[in-house]
Amino acid sequence: MAQTSKAAARRGKPSYIMSIIGVTLVLFLLGIVGWLLINGTKLGDYFRSNIEVRAYLNDNITSADSTALLQELAAKPYMKSYDFVNKEEARKLYQSQENEFPDSVIGYNPLPNAVFFRVKKEYVQVDSLEKIRQELKGNHLISGVLYPRDTVENLNKNLERLSLALLIIAIVIAVSVIFLIDNTIRLAMFSNRFLIKTMQMVGATRWFIAKPLNIRAVINGAISAAIAIVLVLLLISTAQNYWPDLAALRDTKMLILLFVVLLILGISITLFSTYRSVLKYLRMKLDELY
User: Fold this and answer.
1) H-helix segments, the chain
2) Radius of gyration (Cα) for the chain, nearest Å?
3) Would you give the end-to-end CA distance of the chain in angstroms?
4) What is the pLDDT of residue 5?
5) Which domains does the chain carry?
C-alpha cells in the first residue's frame, strides 16, 4: 500500500502543479476584480465626501447667534464637518477664483457670513439634500442654502453605473472561477483514476482513499490562494507607485476580507471538486476508466 501511495504521488505531481497554476490564475483574476470593486466604492465615498453645502447667514446676525447656530448644526445627524466663513474670508475665496471683486465700485463687501459644510455620504442624495435645504431655510438666521444639485445627480448616476458594471463583472468572473477551478481539478484527478480504482479493488475504504487526496486538495487550494494574494498585493503596490493617489483609496479591512474570501474559495472549491472526482471514479466500473 505504501509503494502504491508513493507511485501515486510521483504520478500526481505534474497534474498538481498544473492545477495549482490554474487555480492561482483564476483566483488572481477574481482578486483583481474584487480590488477594483473596493476601489470603486471608496472612490464614490471620496467624491461624496467632497460635496459642499453652503448656508448663507443674515447680515444682522450677532456673534452669539453665530455660535448658537454652529452648535445647532454640529448636532445634526447628517453633519460631517463644517467651516464658518466670515465676510473677509468669503472675499478672499471669491478672488482666489480669479473673479474681480466689486467692493471698489459699490464701496462695501456684499458677501454674507456663511457656513460651508459637508454631510455624511449616505445623505449625498438629491432628496436628502433638498430636505436639509428646506430645514435650514426655516431657520431665521439663515438667508439661503445652496448645494450643487446637478453635480450630485450626475455623480450618483455615474457611480451607480460603475458599481453595477463592476458587480456584474465580479459575479460573472466568480461563477467562471468556480467552473474553471472545478474543471482544472477534475483534469488533475483524471491521471489518478486508475490508482483510485486499484485501491478500491484491493479493499481500501472510501475514506482511506479520499483522505490523502482531500488533504492534498486543501494544501493545493491554500497554496494557490496564497500565491494569488501575493500577486494581487504586488499589483496594488505597482499601481500605487505609478498612481500615488490610489493609496488614498486603500481600504485595509476590505482587502483583508477579499483575501480571506480568496483563501476560502480556493480551498473549498478545490476540496469539493477533488472529493466529487474521487466519488465519481469509485462508482465507475473498471472498463469505463479507459
Assistant:
1) 2-49, 63-74, 87-96, 103-106, 126-137, 149-190, 193-201, 206-242, 252-283
2) 31
3) 23
4) 45
5) 2-46+155-289 (no CATH), 52-147 (3.30.70.3040)
Report the C-alpha gap between 28 and 20 in whole angstroms.
12
Nearest CA to 219 among 185, 259, 257?
Answer: 185
- The DSSP bridge pattern shows strands 79-85 and 114-119 to be antiparallel
Question: What are phi and psi for residue 119, nearest 5 degrees?
Answer: -100, 165
Task: Map residue 85 onto helix, strand or coil.
Answer: strand
> What DSSP string runs through 18-47?
HHHHHHHHHHHHHHHHHHHHHHHHHHHHHH
Rounded to whole angstroms, the Cα distance separating 173 from 289 reads 32
Which cell goes with 56? 448663507
State the pLDDT at residue 217.
81
C-alpha 290/C-alpha 242 separation (Å) is: 53
Query: For residues 52 and 118, is the Cβ–Cβ distance under 8 A?
Result: yes
| Residue 193 grid cell | 483514476
Q: Which residues contact 234 (CB under 8 A, 6 or more apart)?
A: none
Residues of the chain predicted below pLDDT 50: 1-14, 101, 104-105, 107, 288
* Separation of alpha carbons 61 and 164, rounded Å: 47
